[in-house]
């Protein structure tokens, strides 16, 4: 006899609430090894350390938002394959979140104080994107990941040259984000019309400016 219980809307709400609390306030565990590996953690001067920490805080916020975004999209995805794709990407973003948290700790700095706000906003955007349908859902993934790729490239250009540990983490993240976008395109993503990409880019710039310091 099949005794599996069908999850109720309350069960789903509690699961998503737990995910939000663990993402924002918990310490995520990565499934893959930290790409920094055995790279030396060299001494940075005060300005270099602050800059590296500011960049890693931005990327940590980005991963908080990615978790919320994908979970929100998956919550309303109509196709099981689309939902599975989103949740698989979210799991890899958990690795990124853990790596960024580790590097912030090594730099003797902290995550953004506004992480609950970032999570809530990204989750709402994910729900709105998901309700448009799976093609648009995946299109949102593609645009998000392409913009993240671009800002990771900027960070790699401005990191202190001696900070090899942060560099290795960002390089692996950039590869993963490109793969997520490619997979979403292959799964049937639709191209988002303007002004949606422009609005997303503006919101990203606001987040990066604030998260660098707060």
Structural descriptors:
single chain, mainly alpha, globular, 7 helices, Ferritin
Annotate the secondary structure layout.
Blueprint: H1 9-25, H2 46-76, H3 80-106, H4 115-131, H5 134-158, H6 164-186, H7 196-211
| CATH architectural grouping | Up-down Bundle
Backbone structural class = mainly alpha
CATH domain class: Mainly Alpha
One letter per element, helices H and strands E, the order comes to: HHHHHHH
Q: Tell me the CATH superfamily.
A: Ferritin, core subunit, four-helix bundle
Count every helix, treating DSSP H or I runs of 4 or more residues as helices. Answer: 7
- Share of helix among residues? over 70%
Radius of gyration, whole Å: 17 Å
The 3D shape can be described as: globular
Query: In terms of per-residue confidence, which ranges show pLDDT below 50 for 5 or more consecutive residues?
Result: none
Average of the residue pLDDT scores:
89
Counting DSSP E segments of at least 2 residues, the number of strands comes to 0
* End-to-end CA span: 54 Å
Strand content: under 5%
CATH topology: Ferritin
Domain unit count: 1
Descriptive report:
Helix content is 73%, strand content 0%. It is mainly α. The chain has one domain: Up-down Bundle (Ferritin). α1 (9-25) packs antiparallel against α2. The protein is globular. It starts with 8 loop residues before the first helix and ends with a helix.
Short description:
The chain is mostly helical.
